[in-house]
Amino acid sequence: MALPAILAVLAGLATGMSTVTAIAVRWAAFARRPLTAGIAQFLLAMMAGMLVGVLVYFGVGGAAGLASGLWAASAIMSASVIVVFLAFVREVRAHTGAEGGASRGISRSSLVASVIGLVLLNELLMGWSFGLISGEIAPGLGAHAVDSLRVLSEAVTSPWFVFPMALEMLLTLRWLRRELPASLGAFLLLQPAVMVCSPPTLSGPVWQLATAVAAAVLMSIAVARFLLAYFRDEGWPPAAAAYALRLILAFGLMSVGLYLWAANLGTGVFALSLVAQMVVFLHASTEPRRYAARPATDPGIGAQASG
């Protein structure tokens, strides 16, 4: 198959997997029952299994690699069904009272942590495996830790990581727009835009210069918006203010990463900043009600500082 056809197939797969990931995040955001949470975790684990199979194939190679990849993918996908089965058992026990009247709820913190971890894993595996298929990343992790980190950073900064993640962010915002507080609207919309503005993702001076300038402008807007809200005392919920601050810190790390990349010192820090931005976004999108909640006695973002 010619390279353009391969890239077209990969783009279609990446779009589909990003859509499924956004659906899983949406389900996790509203999940209050074990079965709903289990289905969201199952979808993410199943996709991870398929991508692991690709990596196993490239790691072993040949017919043996193909067989090993299929077995690995099948094993992980089969094991992920256990998550749904256990969630179903918990649901039935709760309905029948077998848990002695225990709550039918779930541990939100455990669910959020598992979803964030699985989404990160999926995006990393997608960037890595699709990069291998398209020939953008060399097979193998390398003999030394430095080589392994380089390969992983290449996977994170590849277009198969950056662009699907941006699409996933947009779809998530589309489906959760009514649940997230208005005070975070500008910041949340900035995140997929900044994610796309990744100079190391594509070669070419025009792309790299344009995205570097755009990223700097967007990050400056985020800082200015936060400071404006602070001094105007717009009354943000504490969790929303904490989100904005964490995002600005992640943007600061991205600025450092861009400088190091421009100085030919690698993309490791820049890749780390992309992961940090993902964690900040995923936590907000899987816990939207927490970020909208305001304690009755909360005086607001500016009043807290003046007090």
Q: Nutshell version of this structure?
A:
The chain is mainly alpha-helical and 307 residues long. Helices cover 79% and strands 0% of the residues.
Structure description:
This protein is mostly helical and 307 residues long. Helix content is 79%, strand content 0%. It is built from 12 helices and no strands. The chain has helices at 3-30, 34-60, 62-96, 108-134, 145-157, 159-176, 185-196, 205-232, 238-262, 268-286, 288-292, 301-306. Helix 1 (3-30) runs parallel beside helix 6 and helix 4 (108-134) packs across helix 10 (268-286). The radius of gyration is 21 Å and the shape is flat. It starts with a helix and ends with a helix. The model is unreliable at 302-307 (pLDDT under 50).
